[in-house]
Specification:
5-stranded mixed beta sheet, 10 strands, globular, 9 helices, alpha+beta, about 250 residues
Length: about 250
């Protein structure tokens, strides 16, 4: 199912005020890498509301609608507003006793013109596919790159992401057989481009890399480094859910 994310003018203004302007793009990238990912849902009351925590004190409030457009099932997400944890407005919003109409007024959802977003999705789906250049790495993303393995973002022909666990492992694990890690990872990925979503294991002499494949957009997420197991089974690890806490590490140019 295709996901589309839009923002309201109110959200844009509040996100700018609270330095959260990049957060929607992060959600978009996670959806591209893992199609089943979506923000946390408020389950205590109706209205199809979702949230993304930002800097602990803020909640980015989304709503979602599913439609069939141009023969395709799509999810339309709209970022409505930014609410501060502890403020009266947020406290009233999350109360189960607050009526749906009151909640929709707080977030601005009652003023949404869904037809406008549906029209935008139709136009997007009608566009011919084109190969677009990837955005340049930000300073934060450059700091995420794992230089200890001699890997850099010019090596790969697919987009590779890194979790915080992977970054920590790279900094802490003593490597004895990773001199050709980059080429080994690349060769494995290129040989498994048509594989289904899920966990993969790339084994070395002493260690093994756990990597998750989200085949929508051909994205791969480096997640963890384990001791290699003699029996070659890592089923306990593969039962983990798809990673959601990651950043773009090695995009192709």
């Amino acid at each position: 199912m295709n996901n589309f994310i839009f923002t309201t003018h109110r959200y844009d203004a509040e996100a700018k005020r609270y330095s959260a302007s990049d957060e929607v793009q992060k959600v978009r990238e996670k959806m591209e890498a893992t199609p089943d990912y979506e923000p946390d849902r408020y389950k205590r009351f109706p209205g199809n509301y979702l949230k993304v925590r930002f800097n602990n004190n803020f909640r980015l409030i989304f709503t979602r609608k599913e439609e069939k457009i141009n023969g395709q099932n799509v999810r339309i997400y709209v970022a409505l507003c930014v609410l501060k944890h502890g403020d009266k407005e947020y406290d009233k919003f999350k109360l189960a006793s607050t009526s749906e109409s009151e909640r929709d007024k707080i977030t601005g959802k009652s003023a949404l013109d869904w037809n406008c977003y549906i029209k935008a999705v139709k136009e997007e789906l009608s566009k011919p596919e084109a190969t677009c250049p990837k955005p340049n790495l930000s300073e934060a993303e450059n700091n995420f790159i794992s230089t200890q393995l001699n890997i850099n973002h010019d090596l790969f022909d697919v987009t590779i992401y890194e979790t915080k666990t992977w970054i920590q492992d790279v900094q802490e694990v003593e490597f004895t057989d990773f001199s050709n890690a980059a080429s080994t990872i690349e060769n494995y990925i290129l040989e498994h481009l048509d594989s289904k979503n899920g966990w993969h294991t790339i084994e070395f002499k002493q260690k093994a890399i756990m990597i998750f494949h989200g085949n929508k957009g051909q994205t791969w997420v480096l997640d963890h480094i384990l001791d290699r197991r003699e029996d070659g089974t890592y089923e306990d690890y593969k039962k983990k859910k798809a990673p959601v806490d990651f950043q773009r590490g090695y995009p192709f140019d």
